[in-house]
Design brief:
The complex is a heterodimer of chains A (about 525) and B (about 200). Chain A is of the alpha/beta class and about 525 residues long. Chain A is about 60% helix and about 5% strand. Chain A has a domain at about 425-519. In chain A, the strands form two sheets. In chain A, strands 4-3-5-7-6 form a five-stranded mixed sheet, covered by helices on one side. The mean pLDDT of chain A is about 90. Chain B has one domain. The longest helix of chain B has 26 residues, at about 140-165. Chain B is elongated, with a radius of gyration of 21 Å. Chain B starts with a helix and ends with a strand. Classes of the chains: A alpha/beta (about 525), B mainly alpha (about 200).
Chain lengths: ~525, ~200
């Protein structure tokens, strides 16, 4: 009866899950996380320039790569944000909107991907593909890992969405034996490469693996696979050339785990490099990383929370057992392949582990947990251990509510410094006082590189204050009372009579972000 | 696989684990605090958490921030740190850790589980609590000795089962032995994270 009910009502379930996922990704998104952080404001400013003038912040017309803070950003997210700004205007919501949409779309794509993959292994699966897909999608909808990155302007979320779309098209191409779907799949995977750095390596590995599998198993699509590979290679060419250039390799050089060891003799490198890689790689499977603290970066998770929830642990173990036991079957193999591939690229970079660079891991992990969960629930239903089942659901609900409570109540307070909390309010107040002063000067301690971007984005380049060092002295020829000096709180000048306004961090403590002083 | 070969692999595992044990005894005075549960800071932590719950009904604050929940979370967090791959990679080099994983796998696969198997599983899951809670009462040498005797034994069982059931097991054992020795002799990356080292002379 349950089977029939699920088969008939699967779209209702899917709709409810997508609705829940959308709510969790959209609710209070402009204010929580509080403020645009350094990369978001860089994206925001460039996107606004693209929208207005078709140039980046350095005046380059229709750029393919965006120079920002010592690295080059991939173009997809910035162009998407330009479109979003066109619709919603210059605000935090517009900057986060592409990521939120990608997060919600990922749920939909994930559902069909899991369902189709599971259908391929019907015989080996102890439950209905739809049932599995629904539970897995619900798992992803409430996954703290996925929610965290869907709620802010992270390119990785869009990259993940495109990557999954590519995988879904592959499954359809396999089932329907259509070349066009394979071409579409490879194009989507190439799109992921232009979105986030991790996919610059993960996507080509995936494309080559898929081509290999198709060449070996799909006689009808042999030529089609080669044609798709050729098309994808043409699509990849600009990014390959860019990656090989000095500018493109800059990001790799900056974050390379081996950067500190480049001066070692070759023999020492041979000894040390694999151990660094292995150590980094293993750190992604550490329980401390997955459940306790994540990567410790405040923007990537809340303090004291890992990317996964504790209730998932027993189901992860059960699921892993079945996936390892059945690894020869395509469904189990492809999930495990993704599980082990996902942190591969991130392991050559520091810091490791890194929740953002390994976001792809959330896909196989959610599938494994869902498998373990369904198996356990079925077992418990069979032996009629209803009280245990109720306790399990109560614990899951409690932990998720605890997560939401921490996210909305504690996170904006504890981690306001990790985000750009206070900057938007500072700009708004500066605009308010603009007409009363001849000069507006901002203390560089508030962010030498970012202050011009915050002012540029929120005011549409109408207010460009002078950014100075903390030891700055007002020039003698500037008349008294004509300068508005915005500075970070240094202590001691909280009650200075020249302080005309203050910007506070979120929270009840009234911690000061910036003070407005009349000079 | 022949009995002699199995014995040879078990001997290799024992040698690697003995080297690892000696390595720990030479370098470490005790395990680091990250592996110990200490409830003394809980009250202060609770006060801080509750202070951020302004504007919320009191029962909500009590529901999410109470000693029971915080103590449970602290315990589970420390317990998970114990099962950290890097910690186990350091404590039992890769060969030993692989043996433990293999033993776990064969335990679940096996259809004829005896009561003894379940007792071993319970000890396996509970033994880390000796480190978590009794660190001040039991000397370091006994604690680490207990781990090596118990987990070492389990890893030998796992290796034995693996070697018996897989034809290509020798390749895995060979690779893992090389990696373990190399890891032990060349890299002590995470040692400082997990143990109080003796000062360098």
């Amino acid at each position: 009866m349950i089977k029939k009910f699920i088969q008939h009502k699967k779209y209702l379930f899917l709709f409810l899950i997508i609705f829940l996922g959308a709510f969790l990704r959209l609710y209070k998104v402009p204010s929580d996380p509080p403020g645009l952080y350094i990369d978001e404001i860089s994206i925001a400013y460039n996107a606004n320039e693209i929208f207005k003038k078709g140039v980046d912040q350095y005046g380059v017309k229709d750029p393919m790569w965006f120079k920002a803070f010592g690295e080059y950003k991939m173009p997809v997210y910035i162009y998407l944000t330009a479109g979003s700004i066109a619709v919603f205007g210059r605000n935090d919501f517009a900057v986060r909107f592409p990521s939120v949409v990608a997060g919600i779309l990922t749920l939909l794509i994930f559902y069909f991907l899991v369902e189709e993959l599971a259908k391929l292994t019907k015989k080996n699966l102890p439950f209905l593909p739809q049932q599995f897909a629904i539970v897995a999608t619900l798992g992803l909808a409430i996954s703290p890992w996925h929610i965290q990155f869907s709620r802010a302007g992270f390119e990785a979320t869009v990259g993940l969405c495109l990557y999954l779309l590519g995988l879904l098209c592959v499954v359809f191409a396999y089932k329907k034996q259509k070349i066009i779907l394979l071409v579409l799949s490879f194009m989507s995977l190439v799109g992921a490469m232009y979105t986030y750095d991790t996919y610059r390596i993960v996507a080509p590995i995936t494309i080559l693996t898929i081509t290999g599998v198709f060449l070996k198993t799909q006689r009808k699509l042999k030529l089609g696979s080669l044609f798709s590979l050729l098309i994808s290679f043409i699509g990849m060419l600009p990014i390959i050339l860019f990656s090989l250039s000095a500018a493109g390799a800059e990001r790799f050089a900056q974050t390379s785990a081996f950067a500190a060891y480049t001066n070692l003799p070759v023999i020492q490198k041979i000894i040390h490099y694999p151990i660094i890689f292995l150590s980094n790689y293993l750190s992604y499977f550490s329980l401390n990383f997955l459940f306790n603290i994540g990567d410790g970066i405040g923007r990537h998770q809340m303090a004291g929370f890992g990317p996964m929830q504790y209730w998932e642990f027993p189901f992860l173990m059960i699921g892993l057992y079945f996936f390892i036991r059945n690894w020869r079957s395509p469904f189990y193999f492809s999930t495990l392949f993704l599980f082990f591939l996902a942190p591969f690229v991130a392991s050559v970079a520091v810091p490791s582990p890194h929740t953002l660079r390994s976001l792809l891991m959330v896909i196989p992990l959610t599938m494994i947990v869902a498998y373990g969960f369904i198996w356990a629930v079925k077992k418990l239903l069979k032996v009629k251990y209803l009280p245990i089942l109720i306790i399990i659901f109560a614990l899951i609900t409690y932990e998720f509510l605890f997560y939401l409570h921490s996210y909305y109540q504690h996170y904006p307070i504890i981690n306001s410094l990790d985000w750009g909390a206070g900057n938007e309010q500072m700009v708004a107040k500066a605009v308010k006082y603009q007409s009363d002063f001849q000069h507006i000067v901002v203390d560089g301690k508030l962010g030498v590189g970012t202050i011009p971007l915050y002012f540029g984005f929120y005011t549409g380049d109408k207010l460009n204050p002078l950014v100075v060092s903390p030891s700055w002295q007002k020039p003698k020829d500037w008349q008294k009372g004509t300068t508005l000096y915005i500075h970070a709180y240094y202590g001691g000048i909280k009650s200075n009579p020249n302080i005309i306004d203050t910007v506070y961090f979120p929270g009840q403590n009234k911690d000061i972000f910036a003070q407005f002083q009349k000079l | 696989m022949r009995r002699k070969t199995i014995v040879l692999f078990l001997l290799v595992t024992i040698i690697v684990e003995v080297i690892a044990f000696a390595f720990w005894l030479i370098h470490c005075k005790n395990f680091q605090e990250i592996l110990h549960v200490n409830f003394s800071q809980l009250a202060l932590q609770l006060k801080g958490e509750a202070g951020q719950d302004y504007g919320l009904p009191f029962f909500v604050t009590r529901f999410f921030h109470n000693k029971l929940i915080d103590a449970f979370l602290l315990t589970i967090k420390t317990y998970f740190k114990f099962w950290d791959f890097l910690f186990f990679g350091e404590l039992f080099p890769f060969l030993g850790s692989f043996g433990i994983l293999a033993a776990g796998y064969y335990f679940f696969v096996s259809k004829s589980k005896r009561i003894l198997h379940w007792i071993v599983l319970i000890i396996f899951l509970l033994l880390p609590f000796a480190e978590l809670f009794l660190f001040a009462k039991i000397p370091f040498l006994i604690r680490i000795g207990l781990f090596y005797i118990f987990f070492g034994f389990i890893s030998l069982v796992g290796i034995r089962q693996f070697v018996k059931s897989q034809k290509w097991a020798w390749i895995v054992i060979l690779v893992l032995t090389i990696v373990s020795v190399w890891w032990l002799l060349i890299a002590d990356f995470h040692l400082a994270t997990f143990c109080y080292q003796y000062p360098l002379v």
